Amino acid sequence: MSCPQGPPLTGSAHPTPLRQPKGNRISCSSIIPSTAAPGRSRSISAIRAVLASDKDKMTSASVDGKVLRKKLNKVVLAYSGGLDTSVIVPWLRENYGCEVVCFTADVGQGLQELEGLEQKAKASGACQLVVKDLKEEFVKDFIFPCLRAGAIYERKYLLGTSMARPVIAKAMVDVAKEVGADAVRFELTFFALNPELSCVVPWREWEITGREDAIEYAIKHNVPVPVTKKSIYSRDRNLWHLSHEGDILEDPANEPAEDMYMMTVDPIKAPNEPEYLKIGIVEGLPVSINGKELSPASLLAELNEIGGKHGIGRIDMVENRLVGMKSRGVYETPGGTILFTAARELESLTLDRETIQIKDVLALKYAELVYAGRWFDPLRESMDAFMKEITKTTTGSVTLKLYKGSVSVTGRESPNSLYRQDISSFENGDIYNQADAAGFIRLYGLPMRVRAMLEKGL
């Protein structure tokens, strides 16, 4: 089957720039042999063999410095309709002689970003566009586990882009099987889902070095992409967050322009009266707002609306990317900020000191694994089992006050609360006797007393 050529390039005022790998944005076109089922085998020897033989499998020879690549039959490409994915379509056809099936996951990026995608994909040379609604799965199976774990990357980033990658990649395995493709994207994920694969990596192979090169390539190949050569922000949006990078943000000294924000209002312009919310939580996962039970995606969508109205969830940070460079990004995560505040606050009632400390330590590693694209790593899965177990008693509700960009806690309740007013009052009773403190403090301070005696020669 021969893929169609598209019409000439058309301009737009909303360009989408090429992006460097961020977190687990290490993506590629990974070959899955048509005879292999996409299972969950984790054979270390198989993975090592793949890593060692990728180059040999994907390149056949070199003539006058030009690499002759192995021919593929059909590639499933994660497609957004932006500049980068649009130029990959003709590039794959030109360099690998393959048909390209574009795949778009609806993870809550909004109807506006999904409109006209099929026409764009086919005009770029794709043979087909497959769209799958993954919103509920995304929130239930990927966002909520991270929320339960308390996973935050480098103190601020709530992992919006990183959590979306594995749910998209997982769906692509199914799409590849449905359309009979022998290649897909997302390198690290497919090492976990199926170790019998090799990789085609446009980012590492092509001679396109930036936005202007990509635009010229698009013009040459009659690819209709909505771009101009004027610099603008790079954005990634889903139901959890909206990220902004590039343009004036590349200088960490620059304050973000107010007209950049899309999910949240300026806190100064937010309502002058606070709004109170009661978030219901069962075993560490949110289930209701003000007593109304909602599905995971519906609950998050409603909190995004409420939080955005009050200017909640703006984060400006300089982060360390997986490849070693620092990057400045601005994130809007209104609903996520509300949920993280509620979940952590309820744990103050239901978890003891040692458990909270261990959970916080593991949460850092959990976030790092997710950021690095290792969602299907056995270590993350094992830590997730731990998080699920220790939050079995984290059931109750938290009342929050939203006001001009801030979220403050005004109350928390749980049937499993470890808080006892009869003990916490510090009055003498059957359980707590102030006289017990004297011996405890004397023993607890013994190491410090011994060291002081040594220093004074006593």
From TrEMBL:
SUPFAM superfamilies on file: Adenine nucleotide alpha hydrolases-like, Argininosuccinate synthetase, C-terminal domain
Domain Arginosuccinate synthase C-terminal: 233-450
InterPro entries reported in the protein's UniProt record: Arginosuc_syn_C, Arginosuc_syn_N, Arginosuc_synth, Arginosuc_synth_CS, Arginosuc_synth_type_1_subfam, AS_cat/multimer_dom_body, Rossmann-like_a/b/a_fold
Pfam families in the record: Arginosuc_syn_C, Arginosuc_synth
Keywords linked to the UniProt accession: Amino-acid biosynthesis, Arginine biosynthesis, ATP-binding, Ligase, Nucleotide-binding
Superkingdom, taxonomy of origin: Eukaryota
Ranges where the record places region Disordered: 1-24
Domain Arginosuccinate synthase-like N-terminal, first and last residues per copy: 74-224
Metabolic or biological pathway, per its Swiss-Prot or TrEMBL entry: Amino-acid biosynthesis; L-arginine biosynthesis; L-arginine from L-ornithine and carbamoyl phosphate: step 2/3
This enzyme's EC code(s): 6.3.4.5
UniProt keyword annotation of Calcium present: no
The name this protein goes by in its record: argininosuccinate synthase
Organism field: Penstemon davidsonii
